[in-house]
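Worked example 3 (structure in, sequence out).
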C-alpha cells in the first residue's frame, strides 16, 4: 500500500509538472491578437511596468511569467527605456531579451537651419527617426489643425516652422510641429505689429523667405530687402533665382535659359509680384529686414562670389557690376 501511495504521489507530481510545463509553454507563445506596433518604455520603468506595457500591446500573454523569467535570467535590472518596434510575432523570451537591447531614445536634439524648406525639414525628421514620411506629410497637410498659429487664408505651413534647435519627441509629430509653430509665434508675432508698409503680414513673410535665401551675411539683409521692395513698388519683376529653385530643387547654381522659361507662379522672371507662398522658413533677422528695410534706391544686385553683393540703382550700373564679378 505504501508503495502504491508513493507511486500515485509521484504520478501526480509528474502530471502536475507536465501540466505546468505545458501551460508555461502555451503562455510563452505570442498572443493571437498580436499586431505590428511601436511602444515607448519610459525612463526608469520597473520590470512590472514594462510587463504591463507589453501585455497591453498584445506582445505577451502573461505578465507574471514575464517578470519571473526576467528574474530567472537575472536581467530584470537590465531592461532599457526607449521606443521599440515590434513588426513580427515573438515569444515571451524573445520579447524579454529585446528589452535588454535598448530602444530608440524618445527625444532627439535637432537643429533646423535658417532657410530650410518644408521639404528639408521633412528630411531632417525622417533622418532622425522622428516620424515616417507619410506621418509628416499627413500632419503638415492638416492645415485646419494649426489655424491658430498661421495667418488667415494660408494653405501651407511653409514659412511658419521657425528655424531653431529643438528637442523633438519621436512618434509625436503633432507635438513637434506645434513646438515649431509656437516658437514662430513667440519670436515673430510682435514684429508684424511694427510693420507700417503696404504688404500684408503674409506677403512680408513671403518676401522675408526670399531675403533669407539671397542674403549670405546679416549686414546685407536690409539692403536686399530694400531692392525687392523698390522693385515691387515700381511693378518690376523680382527676378529672384531662389523662387524658381524652390520648384526646381535639383537646379544648378546658375539657372538655364530653359529653366527661366518654366511656367510657374514661383518664376519671378516670368511673373511680376511675389510668389504665392514663402519659399523657406526664414529667420527673425530676415523678417526684421523686410519690416525695417534699408533706405535705398537700389534695384539690382549681383553676387561677388564671396557671400557679398554689388548693388546698383540703374541697369547700366548693374551691367558694369556683372562685368566686375565675371571670371
Amino acid at each position: 500500500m505504501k508503495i502504491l501511495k508513493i507511486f500515485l504521489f509521484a504520478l501526480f507530481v509528474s502530471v502536475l509538472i507536465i501540466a505546468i510545463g505545458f501551460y508555461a509553454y502555451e503562455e510563452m507563445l505570442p498572443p493571437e491578437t498580436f499586431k505590428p506596433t511601436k511602444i515607448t518604455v519610459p525612463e526608469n520603468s520597473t520590470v512590472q511596468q514594462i510587463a504591463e506595457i507589453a501585455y497591453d500591446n498584445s506582445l505577451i500573454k502573461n505578465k507574471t511569467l514575464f517578470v519571473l523569467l526576467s528574474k530567472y535570467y537575472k536581467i530584470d535590472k537590465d531592461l532599457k527605456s526607449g521606443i521599440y518596434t515590434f513588426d513580427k510575432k515573438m515569444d515571451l523570451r524573445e520579447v524579454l531579451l529585446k528589452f535588454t537591447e535598448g530602444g530608440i531614445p524618445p527625444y532627439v536634439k535637432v537643429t533646423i537651419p535658417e532657410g530650410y524648406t518644408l521639404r528639408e525639414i521633412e528630411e531632417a525628421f525622417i533622418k532622425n527617426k522622428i516620424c515616417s514620411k507619410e506621418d509628416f506629410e499627413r500632419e503638415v497637410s492638416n492645415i485646419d489643425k494649426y489655424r491658430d498659429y498661421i495667418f488667415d487664408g494660408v494653405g501651407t505651413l511653409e514659412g511658419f516652422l521657425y528655424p531653431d534647435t529643438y528637442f523633438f519627441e519621436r512618434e509625436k509629430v503633432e507635438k513637434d510641429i506645434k513646438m515649431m509653430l509656437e516658437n514662430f509665434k513667440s519670436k515673430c508675432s510682435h514684429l508684424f505689429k511694427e510693420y507700417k508698409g503696404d504688404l500684408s503680414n503674409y506677403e512680408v513673410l513671403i518676401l522675408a523667405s526670399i531675403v533669407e535665401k539671397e542674403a549670405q551675411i546679416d549686414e546685407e539683409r536690409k539692403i536686399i530687402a530694400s531692392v525687392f521692395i523698390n522693385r515691387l513698388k515700381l511693378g518690376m519683376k523680382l527676378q529672384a533665382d531662389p523662387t524658381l529653385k524652390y520648384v526646381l530643387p535639383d537646379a544648378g547654381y546658375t539657372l538655364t535659359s530653359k529653366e527661366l522659361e518654366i511656367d510657374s507662379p514661383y518664376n519671378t522672371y516670368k511673373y511680376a509680384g511675389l510668389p504665392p507662398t514663402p519659399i523657406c522658413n526664414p529667420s527673425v533677422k530676415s523678417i526684421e529686414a523686410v519690416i525695417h528695410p534699408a533706405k535705398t534706391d537700389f534695384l539690382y544686385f549681383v553676387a561677388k562670389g564671396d557671400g557679398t553683393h554689388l548693388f546698383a540703382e540703374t541697369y547700366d550700373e548693374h551691367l558694369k557690376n556683372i562685368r566686375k564679378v565675371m571670371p
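Notes: The first strand starts at residue 37 and ends at 41. Residues 27-105 form a domain with the Dna Ligase; domain 1 fold (CATH 3.30.1490.480).
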